[in-house]
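Because discrete structure vocabularies remain unfamiliar, it helps to consider an illustrative case, giving the amino acid sequence and backbone structure tokens:
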Amino acid sequence: MSDGALSQDEIEALLKGADDAISLGSGPVVSSGGGNGGGLSESQRATFFDIAKVIAEHQAFSLSSISTKNTTIGDLAVKMMSASELKSQMKGAVLEAKVAYSGPVNGTVYYYIPSKEAAQIASIMMGQDDSELNEMALQALTEAYSQMIGASDTAVSNKYGGSLSAMPAELKAQSGAITPSSGDYAVVTGKLSIEGVADGSPYFMAFETGLAKSLVNMVTGGGRGQSAPKADIDDATDLDSLLGGGSSSVNVKPVEFGALSPAATVQPSGNIGLLMDVTMNLTVELGRATMPIRDILGLGEGSIIELQKLAGEPVDLLVNGKLIAKGEVVVIDENFGVRVTDIINPSDRISGNK
């Protein structure tokens, strides 16, 4: 080439390269790679890439909250690989996290990050200067992955509909070997950056082809329209099903409301009439709960919070933050209300404010 023009052979080579990959706008390349010839159609790979972006974004945000350091997972790309091809991508020692899904979206995904970065994340979580991937470090990282996966699953469900039911993550330190030994995978590759810890370290998410297809089907229609129908809640209503399944270990019961009866009117005395137009804030407190930050970050739709109050106990009535009475919850037409059952003795209120 002396005149700057492309030869016919060069043009054909460029066209051949274009047939092997799908370019998503200005984003990364999604390649069919090896394996079983792709496993996903062109449109399925494009949809799966959109799902992968949501997963990576929310896992990075969750890890940022856990480590208290700015975290990103960028430069994403998707490629179909066989198990042997996936193994060839693992350079040196890595941390493997296996997560299995059941239900309409089912299959297994494997996460991989270098052992060095994994140990540094564990050190931050345990408040240590340095750490190895020992049993304590793996326990800390298991908690981190639980929060990351919970955050990304909630985000995918909120964005696309449907539901995801993941088993607890199983972590293992690997060197020269990985758990997958057969089958084909939709592998998401990216670069993990954690402020002061990692700068563009490899980040892998290897989805079994069946799981990838399940996610795509959920987005394209298989998971839509499955939200709980609206219903009037009465004694026969299964609240657990309305909450999307919930945890089988939590006993959720409907609230029973008693019939209303006229209440006695208390007449003001003395000069208190001068204060009748003064407004004060009345608050009804059902209960309270104390939770660690890790549990709060893991909250999502369908989560159930156990309050520090027994079922059937009266609720507290507070005026400007001060407890003045207790009562029970009732329903007035379509609104909630409170029937006062006990007035706190004024002397007790005064002594409690000292």
